[in-house]
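Predict both folds.
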Amino acid sequence: IEIRATNSTSAEALLLSLRNNTSLSKLSLVLNGQMEIPSTVTMINSLKELVINGGIANSSRELKLPADLAKLTTLEILRVHYCGLTSMLVALKIKQLRVLDLSNNY
């Protein structure tokens, strides 16, 4: 499923409605320049792949990842693009993570 977040409230509400969906294994978030990932993404326990596109290429702003991202205990693939990331320490806490793709973060 792909979610294009036009504002944080609509994204939060949609993600909240998906939290009990046990068959959702891949989620793609297109944040359109928002600087925060909705914290409700960490409630979707079935995720194996999370793709985040911040839409802020060549920006000095940095996307903030939820500190409790490690709650996604089934997450194996994390791709974070165009988010201006300079640090990804929270990803090191995800024990099942096999693929970490941070391409196109300037």
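Second protein follows, with its predicted structure tokens after the sequence.
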Amino acid sequence: KNGNKSAQGIIDSLIDLGDDWMSGLMNDDDITLVVTQQPSSLPRGLLDDATNLRYLDLQHNRLQALPTGILDAATNLQVLRLNDNAITMLREDVLAGATKLEKLWLS
């Protein structure tokens, strides 16, 4: 719809990571993504064209970094939860696309 990646499109992008890697995908108008299976990295292009993404919950995983450009299309992202990961540094350019970000958890 409108060139945006659908919830199914995001699921398809994760197919190589195995079953039950994420949960919580909602409708395309207010997409919510909750990653639950403790990946240490995210695939590049995961959120390409996901301009309707508003809430991204990546807490309680083993992430060490976010790929450059992963949030470039997330222009409507308002909440990003990165707490309880192995991230020691978050480059400023990773958040550049998330111009509407209101809440960020990093603890």
